[in-house]
Amino acid sequence: MGQTLQSGFRPDIQGLRALAVIAVVIFHIKPSFLSGGYIGVDIFFTISGYLIISHIAKQMEKGSFSFVDFYCRRVKRLFPVLFVTCVLTSLFAYQLFLFQEFKDYIFSALSSMFYISNFWFYSQSGYFDSGLESSPLLHTWSLAVEEQFYILFPLILFLFFKVGKKWVPWGLTFIGLISLGFSELVLSFDSALSFYASPLRFWQFIAGGFISLYLKEIKINHFVSQIFGLSALIILLCCLFIYDGNTRFPGVSAIIPTLATCYLLMDYSNGALHTKLLSIKPAVFIGNISYSFYLWHWPTIVFYKILYLSTNVSKLDAIILFLSSLLLGWVSYTFIEQKFRYINIGNKDGPRIIGASLVLTAIFSITLLASDSLHEKKFTKQQKNYETFLTYDTKYFRSGSCFLTSGSNSINLFDRELCISVSNVNNVLLIGDSHAAHFYASLRSLLPNYVQLSQANSSGCAPVFNASGPQRCKDMFNWIATDLVKNIRFDAIIVSARWSNYIEYIEKREYLLNTLQYLKKYTDNLILIGPTIEYKLSLPYILAIEGDHFSVSDMSNLNIARKVDRLLIQMSENLSVNYVSLVSQLCEKNNNCKVTANEVPITFDYGHFTKEGADFVLKTANINELVNL
């Protein structure tokens, strides 16, 4: 994300930066506006490789490269804005965060200052990692990846040049292919690692560097340049709209935007249309401030949502957040970046600048750690108790074996021997997404011991025929429909899902209707569990901030849940399917809703039940009588 290190200023690269940062910011504000906006980070990685690898290699070839000078310039370029961002973010976090939230924030801030936050956030990731979305420094993971690239690649290139200049392209190619190969391999069983780990992203930097070192000077026919350049730009734009949360990414899917970026970096012609488009003044302006714009946008979004107690962002909110982030980026660029960028560095100044940054980091770290005890005193025992449920142990979902998620992204990881338990009689099957998996432990404890309970759950798509969603979900449901229920006669099949997220499959009755009719052929007792209430923020967080007597209708999707509930009740009655209305179990007609069970929050996030919450609704629904075994 740093500025060009080459003497010739290229406004089109600033335009590419503008495209990248705008895409990321829009995606973070409201993903539905630009579902593939996350590839902006990949554009940044490719640009950095193009600029940095070329700069290092050319200086090494001349024998003029200085490690101290290089690292000093990186510190001078990147550290001041990051430091100010972390300091101001910490002040807001101290005021707005709960007890444990602030403890976690401290570790995220320290890891950000030391450029290892990608590994910190990876350690906190998982399917139920909604807490990361409220971490105001989450976006620094990409800065950490870049900084690790800056630290390692001068050393790698130095070794290659020591062996011989001719080995540089071969060495870079080897590392790039290994990096890409492992990125795709790891994606199959740990998508978070493939996303956050810098070694699995290095191939994108290398792709950009390879263009700069070996392909930049290639002369391209003007007509061909126009066609290919516009095509590359269109491909990038298409990726921004076509890619989404269901795309297997990064891995092989990241090749397309990376290569498109590479071509735009390689083919620079003042007369080409794609160059003119990327070089317009507004794009260059945003490209110039892209580093500051990027750094400030995510804390702005997080604190805005916390102050308004909602993760839902309206169109007006989105405009306000975008313009506020842009303004903060400009102020930061003008009064911090620019002030430090043009400080002259003498031969003895490099170690001093690096040393000063380390001292400031140490002071910041000690101050932040010391503030923890003061922050703790702000909260009551009950608030601390509610907050513990934000990190609720979800092992009872049986993720990775019986419940497939983005972290277990293949039907091959489904453990059929563990998850499918049958005997000659009394067999029950639980199918659906995460809103089925949260019932498994309660069903197991509430149903008689002689009942054999099987679980086949997959996150991200509805348990209906021809549903869109990740391949793991389609594979799971196809296997259930064409193999499992045909070969094993289940006495009862329980279907549950996040129905409020799949309204189109309910309103287009042939989807869910046909699915239920199909399943009825293979069981004498089909049970459909309706939608639960979904909160705008995690329920334990709302309880800790607002107490037990907040307005559920104001803080949840209660009206939508009631609408979906009515549709499913009608469908169930027409099909003679047993129906469990979670809405009626939790809320009276006057919107007086139950939010705790035995002093435990009903849900541990927006809508996944705690074990106690699931016990409550299933007992109230008389699940044993419904199963009727």
Instruction: Quickly give the structural class.
Output: mainly alpha
Distance between the termini: 62 Å
Strand order of the largest sheet: 1-3-2-4-5-6
Instruction: Report helical residue fraction.
Output: 55-70%
DSSP helical segment count: 29
Please tell me the total number of domains: 2
Poorly predicted runs of 5 or more residues:
2-7
Strand content: under 5%
The major beta sheet can be summarized as: 6 strands, parallel
Helix-strand blueprint:
Layout: H1 11-29, H2 40-62, H3 67-96, H4 99-113, H5 117-123, H6 140-163, H7 167-187, H8 191-196, H9 202-215, H10 222-242, H11 255-266, H12 273-278, H13 281-288, H14 290-307, H15 315-341, H16 349-376, H17 381-388, E1 403-404, H18 416-419, E2 427-432, H19 434-437, H20 440-446, E3 452-458, H21 471-487, E4 492-496, H22 503-507, H23 509-520, E5 526-529, H24 539-546, H25 552-555, H26 558-575, E6 578-580, H27 582-586, E7 596-597, E8 600-601, H28 611-620, H29 623-627
Parallel strand pairs: 1-3, 2-3, 2-4, 4-5, 5-6
Antiparallel strand pairs: 7-8
Helix pairs in contact: 1-2, 1-13, 1-14, 2-6, 2-9, 2-11, 3-4, 3-14, 3-15, 3-16, 4-5, 4-16, 5-6, 7-9, 9-11, 10-11, 14-15, 17-24, 20-28
